[in-house]
Amino acid sequence: MNDARSQQDARYLAAAREHGAMIQRLARGYEADADLRGDLVQEIHAALWRSFAIFQGQCSERSWVHRIAHNVAVTHMMTGRRARRALLVGLEEIEQLPDGDDPEHTTGQRSLSDRLLAAIHRLKPADRQVMLLYLEDLTAAEIAEVTGFSASAVAVRIHRLKALLAEPYRAEEERA
Amino acid sequence: MSDDPAKQAWQTSVVTAAAPALEDVRAGADKLYRFVRWRNIVEYAACVLVVVGFSSYIFWLPHLLQKVGSALVVVAVFYVAWQLHRRASAVAPDSAGAMPILEFARGQLVRQRDALRSVFWWYLLPFVPGLLLISVGTESERAGETSAIVMPGIGEGVMLACMGAVFAGIWWFNQRIARKLQTRIDEIDALMGRGE
Question: What are the φ/ψ torsions at residue B37 (nearest 5 degrees)?
Fold first, then answer.
């Protein structure tokens, strides 16, 4: 039993090192409140540690970590009081990236990441999952594996996402 | 790193993150155990208070039915405490043995869910006979009959309705928690690739 436990610890620690930053980004996408975000990160790590007791290469480790993290985060989001009150929309209802939450950062990549975050916070759970996974550079097949959505459902959402993300550049070209 | 500007901006928004200490992670994974243990301590403490209170009623309340009702409530408390231990006691994660920890966690969730779902039968119903007898005894005592039985009037009826509402509230709250536990069971089942 001790061997199994130390193997579980070792696999968790390696995964936490490898995917720790992704978990933080994902938590930002699901929880705007800094204190609650800390709780969510802890919950994800606890679930991840538990899950390494049964992970036997059912899928890639990357997909597994994403799946665990999204499961915990969606549950956190759906049970949160704030999310129940918020009016969430689908990807098709967002025509352009909103302005970021942080007015101090209005230029460059920081501005773009703030605008992405503002858009993510408006999305319903299914679209939010796909957008976060897409931004983490998962392939359509990996996104389908993590979310359990059909390939066509993922393809439709990625198509909408690409159009949304290209919008600032299209607008710039039109101005030029 | 992707050459897509949006992906790049997102991925560089947080590039490093310290993992929480392993002890904290393990403690977080044992949250259900610690919650159940704390809840049961509170329940057992409440049982002691109710036993002390209703035992004194056996001696202090004047009407025979009030005395018998109080004794039945005391018996009900012992029954509920035993059922709480039997159905919903906290099982330390260390006792999982060679069982995969997620399988163990699922088993504990199922156990707590089942205890909550059947809460009416083992947690609420046992108190009903004793409380009804006390109610009838109180009405009889008010009517000046120390041994005869007088059925509850409007005042006692309102009291019983309030008690019924409290019981309904407890039942509803427990069913709500049971549904939350079911969600967590479903998540584990999805991860393990099986349906219940």
Answer: -60, -45
